[in-house]
Amino acid sequence: MTRRLLAAAAALTLTLLTACGGAGTGGRDGTIEYWLWDSGQQPGYQKCADAFHQENPSLQINISQYGWDSYWSKLTAGFIADTAPDVFTDHLARFAQYVDLEVLRPLDDLGPTSDIRDADYQQGLAELWKGQDGKRYGAPKDWDTVALFYDKAALTAAGVDPAQLQNLSWNPQDGGTFEKLVAHLTIDANGVRGDEPGFDKTHVKTHGLASEGAGGGGWGQTQWSAFAASAGWQVTDKNPWGTHFNLDQPALQDTLSWYFGLKDKGYLPTYAEIGGSNSIGTDKQIQSGIAAMGISGSWMISTFSKLTDANGKKLDIAIAPTPIGPTGKRASMFNGLADSVTTLSKQPENAAKWVKFMSGEQCQDLIGQSGVVFPARPGATDLAIAYNKTERNLDVTPFTNQVRDKTTFLFPVTTNAADITALLQPRLDAVYLGSEPVSSLTDLNNQLNDLFKVAQ
Amino acid sequence: MALSATTRPDRTPPAKKRDDTRLALLFIAPALIGFLVFMVWPTLRGIYLSFTKFNLLTPPEFNGLDNYVRMVQDPVFWNSMRVTVYYVFVNIVLQTVIALVIAVLMQRLTRRTWLRGAVLTPYLVSNVVAAMVFLWILDYQLGIGNTLIAALGMDRIPFLSSDAWVIPTIAAINVWRHVGYTALLIFAGLQTIPETMYEAGRMDGASEPRMFRSITVPLLRPVLALVLIITVVGSFQVFDTVAIATRGGPVDSSRVLQYYIYDVAFGRFQFGYASAMSVALLLVLVIITFVQYRVTRADSSDLN
């Protein structure tokens, strides 16, 4: 063993000696390295990059796309190994940590981005990207909310009028009209529906509601956040930069008891059914017929619009708003992405120019017309709505109305985000699996609060 | 007298010995440099980092025994220790028994080279690929494994998504991958046992099982001991299969120590604490190897 390792080590020495001195940070002067994770958005941003190059012939944009999981580990490795890009797409769940690690450049200190105005973007979006020091670390590029995607065929088979879905309501006691619909859309192996006598909840063919897991990774964004918030619950005492958590409150615990209780009734797929830690999303669950409808984000619109059945025939997918909760209002998490400039960039002014361009009207209109996400500027958002209406015959107003009606709540931005996820994920998984009661979240809440008591 | 003593042995001039040393050093140098640069230095630095608070991007700050205090109080750490030991136990017992059987079958029944090659094939598949393939095969809904189980009229088994099944499943995946390699090591050991022993056994009318018990196992002990030390150390460092197939889930039931260390270091940027846990793993491995070495008397053979 030792000898084998020695030989390998010796061989490595040689390889490394010859391989050193290749990659550097960001692009060469004139080429700006830009990273994003959503392959669906790459064509749109390539158009922006081309337009940018026309305006600035001396500058080139090189876009690299990496899947969500490898994106962040690659970026982290890039910061350590000095191979990070000049500009990258940033997520609210991560940016606080990067600010703490001092790898993001404040955009106010860079010429081109110093005059970004909060008012140019959908209300509240730009403010989210300011650190605790009040400096701006990201230029808003898009926003997202959540809604119910459903398979029209499943509704027709169940004899449900789609119009009914526009006014669903729920409560933690009996689930309201929402749970009635979910039960009705659930079908067991013998074809018996969830609200009919003789329903076998242990052998369910189609669940009424899709499951995207326990939601520990993003505060239940596409799982239970819409329910908890419509019951009047908020994650932290204030947002952004909250330091006290509310997981011990009945509003959340009752919501989760009800939500994960759907799984015990057979209406929601189990942890095992969606593939455990490597779970499939709402889109795949609807596509494969495991679920009839499910909550998902607006960034998935184009994926849903392209879903086909086993024979390659296009599925007829439509969208409904999240149900009205005990507060009498709907709710949706309001999250957004932004572009950040790294401190490792050797050409921060050029990088800032590109960031400014992406957050500007011309690029955001191009993105709006490609119909993949809702751009951060209100005007470009309207273009995206129009694109979906004309090109896809899809009404996406269940997403945009949440913003218009101000029924959104912002993604909880805190420091220690990675530690919070590490604590939250296993504990919520346990509640989903049923191995821990919902009341165990009170202990978790104390742990989360303790994170902020110790000096970091 | 003195003159004859220096000239007689094979006419070797003393100067040539010095040449040998130089040449030897030259040959050893690459390996030695590699050993120092890639083994000794990282180990020492890791031990140093375990006494610091370090996020890799800003300089480490010395914080004494803080990381170790935290480790002792961390329930997730102790859980991952338990999970790892459970995994090692299942993995090593299964792997050694199956490998021994395969090796003995190869030794006693056929010695075809292609068979030896076939036995080794899974070892040539990378861990990540093996984990991916089994992830698909064992998928609860769509995997062919569960489809077959369902076709046989049994209930589907959540191999990688239930806390009871997950560690045995991961252990079995790694047994599949490593058993051929272990079998070949044991097979090599079997070949050092003189055929005359078996002939003598046959003359005395011993059956195959009896010869296995009374000849093969005792004479194989030193090789088996070495194989065990290597496989146990390797088994403790299980990582890729977990990282691909379960990411530590469900809940913490497959959060093995190496994966927890990785998560703390690269997910949460707490390299100091991660180093402290690595040092703990190092200590555990040193102790286990030492005990194994002594208990199995790996350095002596019964062949003489």
From TrEMBL, chain A:
Q: What is this protein called?
A: Sugar ABC transporter substrate-binding protein
> According to its UniProt record, what is one Pfam family this protein matches?
SBP_bac_8
Residues spanning the signal sequence: 1-23
CDD domains (UniProt xref): PBP2_TMBP_like
Cellular component per GO, a single term: cell envelope
Task: Name the UniProt key words of this record, in alphabetical order.
Answer: Signal, Transport
Q: Which domain of life is it from?
A: Bacteria
Q: What is the lineage of its organism?
A: Bacteria, Bacillati, Actinomycetota, Actinomycetes, Micromonosporales
Q: Which residues cross the membrane?
A: none
Localization annotation: Cell envelope
The main place the protein resides is other
Provide the family line.
Answer: Belongs to the bacterial solute-binding protein 1 family.
Automatic annotation (TrEMBL), chain B:
Q: Which GO biological process entries does UniProt record here? A: transmembrane transport
Q: Which UniProt keywords apply?
A: Cell membrane, Membrane, Transmembrane, Transmembrane helix, Transport
Topology with respect to the bilayer:
Multi-pass membrane protein
Which SUPFAM superfamilies does its entry note? MetI-like
Q: Which Pfam families match?
A: BPD_transp_1
**Subcellular location, record wording:** Cell membrane
Q: Does the keyword Transport apply?
A: yes
Q: Which cellular component terms (GO) are annotated to the entry?
A: plasma membrane
Gene3D superfamilies referenced in this protein's UniProt entry, alphabetically: MetI-like
Q: Which residues form the ABC transmembrane type-1 domain?
A: 81-292
> Which family, according to the similarity comment?
Belongs to the binding-protein-dependent transport system permease family.
Q: What is this protein called?
A: Sugar ABC transporter permease
Q: What organism is recorded for this protein?
A: Winogradskya consettensis
